[in-house]
Every structure is written in structure tokens, then in C-alpha cells.
Specification:
This protein has about 475 residues and is mostly helical. The protein has a domain at about 1-55 and about 320-465. Helices cover about 70% and strands about 5% of the residues. Its EC number is 3.4.24.84.
């Protein structure tokens, strides 16, 4: 532990310029955030002409009829225009808040609010909660019209929306209540660890964040998700029999098998699993059950169990811990820099003793360009995991020595195609693949089908060699 702390001390020394040099951090944030936004807009503009193509890639021509492909192209075009406009609007709003000194005003206003209830600025955590509530409202209220348009215009136009106005309002109020009920105690504990641990907060804060993540894995499906969706035991039948048999053969610790009423809000389909290592739950959208045959849904679940077999959730958790560690290790240099806060219009009095929540928020803004690259890296890892899970499903016959699994790869391919067709997913991607690398955590449908063909071809060659 002492070695780690000495390493952090050396890192802080290298970052000492944050406290000593005159850096216009406000302009840096404005410039870097606009660069990222304009880059994202550029990728959308590069992708946009592909939505004017009149036929799918040759590999997919036999799966898309003309009408379905036309609908998917129109849906992709509308989503691209929506993303372009909303991305620019969000950036304009963020830039306006930064330029106007809104964050400094919000901190002072939070102090006035708690002062009204008899608390002074010495109660930093209390003021931080009020400050966070102000920022939450400032970001949430402008996003409501955007969400309304996305739900009742964009998704409605293309036949996906099932959300009623009353359900939309109910979901919004529930999410706001949860944000305060869960976010408030979380933020209080987060800031308390900072204060309690002092400059050696990194390992303690990482332990706290890991504990919170594990806690959410437990309480989300049991307490939070039922507020929005109904989870019902999957009825007896062919799909349940297939799923339980597959889980048993793979020794997957299946505890519950649920059907979720995803059709309550949307026509999109999905399936996933969650839970602790010794107790897993599988959830299948009712839309997937309705639109696919049990054998194809089983193939989708085989892919999901491939993620479990290769420990992808655990690996992603470890990667996220490295990411969090890096951020927290860099943060102290900015936490102890009054000059850093002054550049964002905070008063000398506030900047002299930088509030943790304020310094951390501004520090995250500094990381905007770095996080864009991190996102590409995480997408690369996620895409690799998707290919591994696909291969797992294709190789199930060899793993289980079960002749009924011979066509699992074909079934998975059909299921993926059906999901893309029903969801009107885009099948054309810019030839540079930068758009896909930046936005997609999954390989494209064409890439996945080609990869599965490659798996089968290599398997056939291996079999011939053995003969």
C-alpha cells in the first residue's frame, strides 16, 4: 500500500502544474467538448448517405424484402438526423452553462438554500446535495421535450412506440424519485469517504464503488425494475424446457427464468441475464418470444450464456475498476488547486477550499476527450466479447456432445437476422468503420454472420483432417 501511495505522490508531483501554472481550463473544456461533438457530427454526416441505398449488402439480400429494407433505411435516416440535432443542442446548452458561470452560481445558490434551513457552508455534504439537485433539474428539464419527441414522434412514426402519455409521465416521476432516493445517500457516502480517508482516498473509494455496484446487482431486479416492468415466470412449454435443459447442461446456476413485458413500452426485442455468481436469472422480452421460434430464442440464450462461460461481465467489471482507478489517481491534483476552480468563475472564497463535488465535476469535464478514446477502447473489447459468445454458441455441439446442438450456429444466425429485421436495424456502415467503432458495442450483422461462417468452415476443415 505504501508503494501505491508513493506512486500517487509522484504522479501528483508531475501534475503540480495544475496548481501553479496559469491554465485557462474553461476554454480548454469548451474547445475539447466541441471537438468531440463536431467529431461525432462528422461521423453521422459520413454515415448519413448510406441510408439512401436502395438494397442491403449482398450477404443480406435474401433476408430483407424491399419494403422492410426501405423502412429500416428511413428509420436509420430519422435517427441520424435526430442524433445530429440533439447532440448539437446538448453541446450548445453545456457550453452556455459553462460560459455563463452557471456552476459557480449553482454552488452559491445551494449555499443559500441550506442557509435558509439553518445550515452554514461548513456542511459541505449538505450543500453538495443541494448543488447536485440543482444540476439534475437543469439537465433533466431541457431533456423532457427531446424524450417526448423521441418517444411519441420518432419511435411512433416507425411503429415501435407502445408508451402512453400517462406511462411516460409515470416513468419520468419514478426515475426522478429514484434519482433522489438512491442518488442522495450514494453521493453522501461518496463524499464522506473522501473526507474520512483524506489524501489516501483511492483504495477506500474504489472499495465503496465496488460495494455499491454489487448492491445494485441485487436490489435492481428485486426492487427497482418491478417499478417499471413486470417480471413473470416464463410459462411452461417448449422454450422453458429448452432453456432449463441448456442451463443444466452448461451448469449455469439458473435460479429464475422470467418473461418481461417489454411490449409495454416498445416493440424492440432483447434477452439478458443478471445476478450473483451462484444465483443467476434469465430475462426474455415478450416481444422476442412472440417474434421468434423457441429454437431461435434458445440460440440467443446460448449466446448470452457464452458471456457467462467466458466471464465477460467479470472481465468488464475488472476493466471498469482500472478505469475508475485511473480517474481517481489523477483527481487529487485538481482537488487541491484553487486556481482550477477560479478558471470556472468560482469566487476566491470557494476556490480557496475546493468543494469535492465541484472539483470532481469540473475534472470530469477535463476528461471529455480522453473518455471519447476510452469509449472506443471499451467498444473494441465488447465487440471481441460478442464474437467469443457467438463462437461459444456455434461450438455447443462439441462442448456438450449433443447432436441436437448441431445447427445452433444456423439458429443463432437466423435469430440475429430476425432481430435486425424486426428492430429495423441499420445494415450499412461507413467503409472506414470509425462510426461503428465509436458507436457500436456489437459487431454489425454482416460481420457476425461472416464470423460464424468462418467458425463453421474451420470446424469442417478440422473434422476432415481428423478423418
Amino acid at each position: 500500500m505504501d508503494l501505491l501511495h508513493s506512486g500517487w505522490a509522484a504522479l501528483e508531483q508531475k501534475l503540480s502544474f495544475v496548481a501553479t501554472d496559469s491554465v485557462d481550463w474553461k476554454s480548454f473544456v469548451q474547445f475539447s467538448s466541441w471537438i468531440v461533438t463536431l467529431f461525432e457530427s462528422y461521423l453521422l454526416i459520413r454515415q448519413y448517405p448510406l441510408y439512401s441505398k436502395t438494397s442491403p449488402p449482398k450477404e443480406l439480400e435474401k433476408y430483407f424484402d424491399e419494403e422492410v429494407f426501405r423502412k429500416s433505411q428511413n428509420y436509420g435516416k430519422d435517427k441520424a438526423k435526430f442524433s445530429l440535432v440533439t447532440g448539437l443542442l446538448k453541446q450548445i446548452l453545456d457550453s452556455t452553462l459553462i460560459h455563463s458561470g452557471f456552476y459557480a452560481w449553482a454552488w452559491d445558490f445551494a449555499g443559500e438554500i441550506i442557509g435558509y434551513f439553518g445550515y452554514s457552508s461548513e456542511y459541505e455534504i449538505t450543500q453538495s446535495l443541494a448543488f447536485s439537485a440543482i444540476l439534475f433539474l437543469a439537465s433533466s428539464i431541457p431533456s423532457i421535450p427531446i424524450s417526448v419527441y423521441a418517444t411519441f414522434v420518432l419511435e411512433e412514426k416507425h411503429g415501435f412506440n407502445k408508451t402512453t402519455p400517462s406511462l411516460f409521465v409515470s416513468d419520468l416521476l419514478k426515475s426522478w424519485i429514484l434519482a433522489f432516493v438512491i442518488g442522495g445517500p450514494f453521493l453522501s457516502a461518496f463524499l464522506y469517504v473522501f473526507k474520512w480517508a483524506g489524501d489516501r482516498f483511492v483504495p477506500w473509494l474504489m472499495a465503496f464503488l465496488l460495494f455499491f455496484q454489487i448492491t445494485m446487482v441485487i436490489i435492481y431486479p428485486t426492487l427497482i425494475q418491478p417499478l417499471f416492468n413486470k417480471l413473470s415466470p416464463l410459462p411452461d412449454g417448449e422454450l422453458r424446457t429448452r432453456t432449463e435443459a441448456l442451463a443444466s447442461k452448461l451448469k449455469f446456476p439458473l435460479k429464475h427464468l422470467y418473461e418481461i413485458d417489454g411490449s409495454k413500452r416498445s416493440s424492440h426485442s432483447n434477452a439478458y441475464f443478471f445476478g450473483l455468481p451462484w444465483s443467476k436469472h434469465i430475462v426474455i422480452f415478450d416481444t422476442l418470444i412472440k417474434e421468434s421460434k423457441p429454437a431461435e430464442v434458445e440460440a440467443v440464450l446460448a449466446h448470452e450464456l457464452g458471456h457467462w462461460y467466458h466471464m465477460h461481465p467479470t472481465k468488464l467489471l475488472c476493466i471498469s475498476q482500472v478505469h475508475i482507478f485511473t480517474i481517481l489517481a489523477l483527481f487529487p491534483a485538481f482537488l487541491h488547486s484553487p486556481q482550477f476552480l477560479r478558471s470556472f468563475d468560482f469566487s476566491d472564497k470557494v476556490a480557496a477550499h475546493p468543494p469535492t463535488i465541484v472539483a470532481f465535476l469540473l475534472f470530469q469535464m477535463i476528461l471529455t476527450p480522453l473518455e471519447a478514446f476510452v469509449g472506443i477502447g471499451l467498444n473494441f473489447i465488447s465487440r471481441h466479447f460478442e464474437w467469443e459468445a457467438d463462437r461459444f454458441a456455434c461450438d455447443l455441439q462439441d462442448r456438450l456432445k449433443d447432436p441436437e446442438m448441431t445447427d445452433m450456429g444456423d439458429r443463432l444466425g437466423r435469430a440475429l437476422i430476425a432481430l435486425h429485421v424486426k428492430n429495423l436495424s441499420t445494415v450499412w456502415v461507413d467503409w472506414l468503420c470509425v462510426y461503428s467503432a465509436y458507436h457500436h458495442s456489437h459487431p454489425t450483422l454482416t460481420e457476425r454472420l461472416k464470423a460464424m461462417e468462418g467458425f463453421r468452415a474451420r470446424k469442417d476443415v478440422h473434422i476432415k483432417k481428423e478423418l
